[in-house]
Amino acid sequence: MRPLSDLVVLDLSIARAGPVAVRLLSDWGADVIRIEAPQQAGAQDVTGNRKGSDAQNLHRNKRGISLDLKTEQGYRLFLRLVEQADIVVENFRVDVKRRLKIDFETLQKVNSKLIYASISGFGQSGPYQNRPGVDQIVQGSSGLMSLTGRPEDQPMRVGIAISDTTAGMFLGQGILLAVLERHRTGIGQWVHTSLLESMLSKLDFQAARYTMSGEVPGRAGNHHPTFAPMGVFEASDGWVNIAASTGKMFRAFCDALGLNELLSDTRFESAAARLEYREALSQIINERTRTLTSEVLVERLNAVGCPCGPIYSVEQAFEDQQARHLRMVQRAEHSELGSLQLIRSPINLSRHPLNEAFDRAAPEHGEHNHEIYQNLGLSLEEIESLERSGVI
């Protein structure tokens, strides 16, 4: 029994943010039922090929059914599923879920204990509530792209779907908060967040610079915006990250690399001074670091308590000895694709040692129709009739 094994989740979400939230639940034992519309000829998963790496990593550990919510029979079946569910996760536009009669107010009348979780681009109300919101757009409208890249270049997107995954993580946390409160009150509630809310929160200290003092931060490239030296530096065989931001770290850094003359230079005598003269400081440091290999820099600086690390490709990151020790890759068995290597949850619980494999690979379209609808009380004949009529 894993921590969430007593929860049943109906997953109506598409795109990425909703499934990220659901994945948190399914990885820790929740019985997640992914509900999709009956498949049309040539239709693909929103991530592309449903047998591809993205879809498999996003939807592992779920069961899957097909169901047309726009039909009377399909809607009645959905309400029967809701009666037995703990959580519904969706990312429909406000007007769509009301038109389909699957909004929180409607479903709470069916199941007062239901936790209804919504994710959107810009929020459930306000002037942008019906705008389509995807990661790239919100990276721009949240201010994130104005902080990413070099000052002299155009704004730059982050190389992952960071607003999607951040919103999914926050929604997952919100769901767990609602589960905890339901244990005390016996009542469900509506949990919702958006890509925009999540990214404005994720800006963290950069946002607080504006909200507290009116300071508008800009792009600092690979330098930390408020500390120096902290950023990317040249090695003889590539690049490394170095963080010598505190006085203690800076002294250790200078001593380890034979740069003790910096300690007596008035331009670098304080954290504020080092930030003011960052360009001059970086030039001196690079002249020294480019004479040493990245391996030497990593070993020498970490040994004296000054953080330093390599800049890896994705392949190098997963093949690094620490990543391999942490067993971040976990197996999933697929009936057609064989043994898949996917990315495990980064959460570690002492009472739950790491599994050797996921419970299941991502489901095929409607793969568990018979299993789930029979558990709902339908006969085989009724299920086949629903298939012929296109309801499932």
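The above is record 1. Record 2 follows with the same two-line structure.
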Amino acid sequence: MTTDAGAAGTRATDDRMAAVFGLLLAEVDPLADALTAEILDGEWAYAESTLLDRGQLRGAVHDNLRALLSTYLGQPPDLDAPRAAGRLKAEQGIPLAALLHAYRLAGRFIWDRLLAVAVDQDSTSELLHMASDMWVAIDEYSSAAAEAYRATVEERSRRDAAARGAMLASLLDGRAGNSGWETVRILGLDRQGPLVVVCVEGGDEREPLAALETRLRAQDVGSVWLQQAAARVGLLAFADGRAVADVVERLAAATGSRIGVSRPFVSPVHAPHAWHEAQLAVRCLPPRTNGSHVYGSSPVALMTAAAPDAAGEVVRAVFGPLRDLPEQEQAVLLDTLEAWFASGGSTALAATRLHCHRNTVLYRLNRITDLTGRRTSDAGAAAELYIALHAVRQGVQ
């Protein structure tokens, strides 16, 4: 229980400290000048900055000093000043570490000034009791500034990514027109090697777009990406055309998706056509698989992808009753036909691939002939079977 004498002593202590802080608050303008100079001398990032001028720094210092000293006088913390400082430093490219260092310098600066005034006022013992509270306030203000800094950086990153995506979209849909080379230069893709458009199936973003750019940059490949509902689209710039196949294979393994790849091109004016090629190339791969496919590397697959309705008509016309079989029986016959084609028409090699007897392969091929009316020994019929099989593997019904 506090005695009257104890309460009177506490009030006297509070009054003496209020007088100390009040003296500093009255001198906030010259103090702001002095602290600004100290920050510029003690933190190179501020001294070297060409975007943050002395007036801006001094204004932020002044507002934070006033808010801090008012807090020590018992007013509720006003975190608008540190938040504004955090946003300003993020926008001007001052490192976060430099921002936090400035707050530590400010804490030491305030303490030194408080101590000097407290000695004159014979209040050093009271000041020592307040040291912990003072540094807690410094931490609260620096934390608010850091939080605002990070939020600003994240928002700026989102804006930058959106702007880059918009520029890529203008290249892909042809809106860039004669400014295509300038757009490529702004995006940092003006290299000596070829450009390639890739379409990565899936909108779930197993790997964020920024991570894809970082991964490719490590392989000396520049890139810019656009997120769409069902795919991620990238424009890749290579320093050496020989690296294209290797990079794309690594990208397919990393994303675990189907990736369609355009043919390499050298002028951004060809980007819209390359985008169309990449979209078709994705559909040349079987559904629910992963891997990469370069446009034009399989003419039959390209024909199916480019005309899926016509491919469906081919499947129904060629396979006919075979497609009405139970799913497992149908799969056995199609797998056998695929193995036979992959073996160059050798029943013995197909049998080895399928781990069965050669006569089993012959029986299944005869069964296909009975159902479709097409013999594999006839070149024209075999070609029709091959095209229909490819269409089925690409998901055509």
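Confidence is low (pLDDT under 50) at residues 1-13.
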